[in-house]
Structures are given as structure tokens and as C-alpha cells.
Design a protein that fits this description.
The chain is of the alpha/beta class. It has one domain: Aminopeptidase (3-Layer(aba) Sandwich), CATH 3.40.630.40. Helices cover 40% and strands 19% of the residues. The chain has 6 helices and 6 strands, in the order αβαβαββαββαα. Strand 1, helix 2 and strand 2 form a beta-alpha-beta unit. It is globular and about 55 Å long. The site of zinc ion (ZN) has 5 residues, from loops. Zinc ion (ZN) binds next to loops.
Length: 198
């Protein structure tokens, strides 16, 4: 009788032993950016974070969320959660808005923000992975001193997954199948990044 190779079983949970903190941006009265139909960034941040949580758990990770529902949490509280949990990586999930003078039609794409050197390769890897696998435009990878890139206890990256205000991009942002696909690809990207650093 044949037995499945043991290695296949091990590879099905490549994130075993890894703690990942997801921080869905905004919440409560703080809505974040708004799409053309009023869909708020705080909603899509939470939806995508929960989809990503499921995908990461499937791959063996232990996942923490800074919020599980629509509530306001301060930046200080979010950072405190990171410092308390000490995750292997921390990802803050956002979608972008534009200032009033911005060009909504021509501004689009996936952006990533990092601050400490330890987060640089994760930001670049996830950005390039999403752009390639989802065929999304690139907004860029930026060095920026933000509340949620500043934690140094762990590589901390802030993801801006698209522009709420761009009408074409917004169709993709609010589409349920696309949200699910994004979560899947992002989880695969996290697995592959860990494989490159280990
Ligand atoms: Zn935001």
C-alpha cells in the first residue's frame, strides 16, 4: 500500500509556529477613505483582514487582529498590541485616498510602507508579489516613519492595497471574488517570503 510522502503533509502548513498580527486600519467613526458609492475603507480593511486571517490559519499560522469588528482604536493601542503580542511580522491593512487636488483617474496601484531595515525586504517582496500575481499596477514601496511602520519589535509593513477613489480600481477593491483572491495571493506571498529568509 502506498503512503503519501510525509513531506507533502509538512508543506501544507508552512507557517506553523509563526505569529502574524493583522491590523485592519481605521474603524468606528474613523472611516478612512471612501469609494465612489460610499463604501468605506474601514469596511474593506476588515473584510480583507479576515479573509487573510483564514488563509494564514489554513497555512498553519497563528493570527491576531487588532480589531475584529467596526470599532475605533487609537494608533497607540494598535502599537501596544504589537508590542504585547510580539508577532513574527505585523501587517497594517489599508486602502489609499487622494488629496483633493489629486488625479483620481490616473492614480492607482499597490503601495507598501516600511521604516526599519528589518521590514524592507518584506515590503518589497509583498509589493512585487501582488503586482506580479494579481497583475495590479504598482504605486511603489516607500520608506516612511508612520505609527504602524515604527514598531521595531518585529518587521512591520503598512499595505495600501489600492486607491478607493479610482473608479476602475474601486471595482476591483469592492468585488468579493477579487477580495478573496487578494487574500489568497497575499498569504502565498507571506509563505514565500518566509521561505526566502529562512
Ligand atoms: Zn487608511
Amino acid at each position: 500500500m502506498r503512503h503519501p510522502p510525509q513531506q507533502l503533509k509538512q508543506n501544507s502548513t508552512p507557517l506553523q509556529g509563526i505569529k502574524i498580527l493583522l491590523d485592519p486600519g481605521h474603524g468606528g467613526t474613523e472611516t478612512g477613505a471612501r469609494g465612489p458609492n460610499g463604501y468605506t475603507e474601514k469596511e474593506v480593511n476588515l473584510v480583507v483582514s479576515k479573509l487573510l486571517e483564514k488563509e494564514l490559519i489554513k497555512r498553519g499560522a497563528t493570527v491576531y487582529l487588532t480589531r475584529e469588528d467596526d470599532r475605533e482604536i487609537s494608533l497607540v493601542e494598535r502599537v501596544d498590541t504589537i508590542n504585547k503580542i510580539k508577532p513574527t511580522v505585523a501587517l497594517s491593512i489599508h486602502y489609499n485616498a487622494l488629496p483633493d487636488w489629486g488625479d483620481a483617474i490616473n492614480t492607482k496601484g499597490v503601495g507598501m510602507f516600511w521604516y526599519h531595515a528589518q521590514a524592507h525586504s518584506l515590503a518589497i517582496f509583498l509589493h512585487n508579489y501582488l503586482v506580479a500575481k494579481l497583475n495590479r499596477p504598482s504605486y511603489g514601496v516607500f520608506w516612511n516613519n508612520l505609527a504602524l511602520t515604527r514598531p521595531h519589535i518585529t518587521p512591520s509593513v503598512l499595505l495600501e492595497l489600492g486607491f478607493m477613489i479610482n473608479p476602475d480600481e474601486f471595482e476591483w477593491i469592492e468585488n468579493r471574488q477579487e477580495q478573496a483572491k487578494l487574500a489568497q495571493i497575499l498569504a502565498d506571498g507571506i509563505v514565500e517570503w518566509f521561505a526566502t529568509v529562512n
